[in-house]
Design brief:
alpha/beta, Rossmann fold, Hypothetical Protein Tm841, Chain: A,domain 3, globular
Length: 292
């Protein structure tokens, strides 16, 4: 069995230290601001810089990596004798998954066997991060690349994604919500509750009013859906788009209600924040499978 190398895009919203400590290949996505391209590699652009630009009225966009970006990153690793498992954004949200699959197919055609495995995570942000962390655990247990791939496909629906959003203004500027919805959202202090569906797309579940109600709703959902309910004993990831106070409030509510949780980690949202703007808090945990 060949050794395994993990690869991931910055859309997993893990820290640079996590990549370095676990020897995971980072393939940065591209964020474009005022026509200038920035590699989202924790150096050229930071979440603080991104959200400051959005608050200034800028409308950043993203550019998915093309097939050759993946191919060029992976070719030497395969030549060095590794098999690769790559973790990327849901195919329901981006075309990067298909680009990565095409690069893997190119390498397979060249070497005559499958060497790069690209599961469709159907995940986003720190939900991808949970899957990457799971893949890293499986690698450390001695699983092969094909075994890790199979485990991800089997378990990906168990990664629960729940989001709330405090500010509709950036969504309006980007044409994602109407002016009426933006005005009503601000006037009524609406915090939508959103989730990931079985196709890896974000869908709205309900509306709440006010941050306290929204954060409590996220944790109520976790109690209902988490593996073992209030006895949940695995990791919890929380991510936010320049809303650390909100993330910490969700963390506090989880600590008060879940005594056995293994760990709670908070991360900055990178690329997804280009689309949501500041004010997002997201909660990720292992639990009941998505069914719709």
């Amino acid at each position: 069995m060949r050794p395994v190398k993990l690869s991931a895009a910055t859309t997993v919203d893990m820290t640079r230290e996590y990549f370095d400590e676990n020897d995971i290949l980072l393939i940065p996505t591209i964020i474009i601001i005022d026509g200038e391209e920035y590699a989202d590699d924790y150096e050229q652009i930071t979440p603080r810089f991104l959200y400051d630009k959005i608050r200034e009225g800028k409308l950043p966009t993203t550019s998915g990596n093309g097939t050759m970006v993946y191919y060029e990153n992976w070719k030497k690793i395969v030549e060095d004798g590794y098999d690769i498992v790559h973790i990327d954004l849901s195919s329901g949200l981006s075309g990067t998954h298909n680009s990565a699959v095409m690069a893997a197919d190119m390498i397979e055609d060249e070497v005559g066997e499958k060497r790069v495995y690209v599961p469709d995570t159907l995940a986003a942000s720190s939900g991808e991060g949970l899957i990457l962390d799971y893949a890293n655990d499986l690698k450390n247990e001695g699983k092969s690349a094909s075994e890790i791939y199979d485990c991800i496909l089997k378990d990906r629906m168990k990664v629960n994604h729940w989001f709330t959003l405090s500010d509709f203004s950036h969504l309006f500027r980007g044409g994602r919500v109407s002016r009426t919805k933006m005005i009503l959202g601000a006037a009524l202090n609406i915090y939508p509750i959103m989730r990931m569906d079985i196709n890896g797309k974000l869908v709205q579940k309900k509306n709440t009013r006010g941050s306290k109600k929204a954060f409590k709703t996220l944790v109520d959902i976790m109690e209902k859906r988490a593996e073992c309910g209030k006895d949940y004993n695995k990791k919890v990831f929380i991510s936010h788009s320049d809303y650390i106070d909100g993330a910490k409030e969700v963390e506090k509510l989880i600590e008060e209600r879940f005594a056995n949780v293994k760990s709670i980690e908070i991360f900055d949202i990178h690329q997804i924040g280009v689309h949501t703007g500041p004010g997002t808090v997201s909660l990720f945990f292992w639990g009941e499978e998505r069914i719709d």
